[in-house]
Design brief:
Helix content is 78%, strand content 0%. The protein has a single domain, classed as Tetracycline Repressor, domain 2 (Orthogonal Bundle), CATH 1.10.357.10. The longest helix has 25 residues. By secondary structure, the protein is mostly helical. Keywords: DNA-binding, Repressor, Transcription, Transcription regulation.
Length: 199
C-alpha cells in the first residue's frame, strides 16, 4: 500500500508508467529502473512509497480494479432494480469496458493473473474481484432462478466473461462485446428454459 504523503499526481503517473513498461517488455522485464525512467522519477521514490516492484504492481492492479468496479457500478446505477436481464448485460459490458480492453491494461491483467498465483497480496485482490463479480451476478440471477441454480448460473456467466475476455485479449482482432453478450445471453436463455422459476 502506498505510504501516506505520496503525492496524488505521482500515483497515476507511476501506474501508467508501470502499464506502459509491462506492455513493452512484459512483467519479468519490467524493472524499477525502467518504470522510474518511463515515469520520469527516481527509483528511490518508487522504493520509498511502494517498497519496490511488488508494491507498485499491487497499486497498479488496485487502480485497474477500481476502474472496473466504477464501470460496472455506473452502468447498474442507470437501470431499474427489477430490470434483471438488462442489469446482467450491464455487468458484462462493464467487464468489457474500453479501459479494461485497452492493450496496456489487458497485458497488465494477464501479468496480474499469472503473478497472483505466487503473490499473497495479489491473490487477495483477485479473490476480492471474483467475489464482487459473483455477488453482482447472484443478486440479479436470484430474481430469475431458484437459489442453487442462480449460484451455478453466476459461476457460469463469470467463467464466460473471463474466458471470452482472455480469448479476445490474445486475439489480434481483440474483444467483440456484441458477440460476448450474445454468447452469455444464449447461456442464460438455456439456464432459464431448463429451470422454471419457482419463486
Amino acid at each position: 500500500m502506498p505510504k501516506v504523503g505520496m503525492p496524488d499526481i505521482r500515483k497515476p503517473q507511476l501506474v501508467r508508467a508501470t502499464m506502459a513498461v509491462i506492455d513493452r517488455v512484459g512483467l519479468h522485464g519490467a524493472s524499477i529502473s525502467l518504470i522510474s525512467k518511463e515515469a520520469g522519477v527516481s527509483t528511490g521514490i518508487i522504493n520509498h512509497y511502494f517498497g519496490g516492484k511488488d508494491g507498485l504492481l499491487e497499486e497498479t492492479m488496485r487502480e485497474v480494479l477500481r476502474q472496473l468496479s466504477k464501470s460496472v457500478s455506473d452502468r447498474l446505477r442507470k437501470l431499474p432494480k427489477d430490470a434483471h436481464r438488462e442489469r446482467i448485460n450491464a455487468i458484462v459490458s462493464g467487464n468489457f469496458d474500453g479501459y479494461q480492453t485497452d492493450n496496456k491494461v489487458a497485458k497488465t491483467w494477464l501479468a496480474f493473473w499469472a503473478f497472483s498465483m505466487h503473490n499473497p497480496e495479489l491473490k487477495r485482490l483477485q479473490h476480492v474481484n471474483e467475489k464482487r463479480l459473483l455477488s453482482h451476478l447472484k443478486r440479479e440471477l436470484k430474481a430469475l432462478l431458484p437459489q442453487n441454480n442462480a449460484e451455478l448460473a453466476a459461476l457460469g456467466v463469470a467463467a464466460l466473461i473471463d474466458g471470452i475476455w482472455l480469448r479476445g485479449t490474445l486475439n489480434p482482432s481483440g474483444i467483440d462485446l456484441d458477440t460476448a453478450k450474445r454468447i452469455i445471453n444464449d447461456y442464460l436463455n438455456m439456464q432459464l428454459s431448463l429451470t422454471p422459476h419457482t419463486h
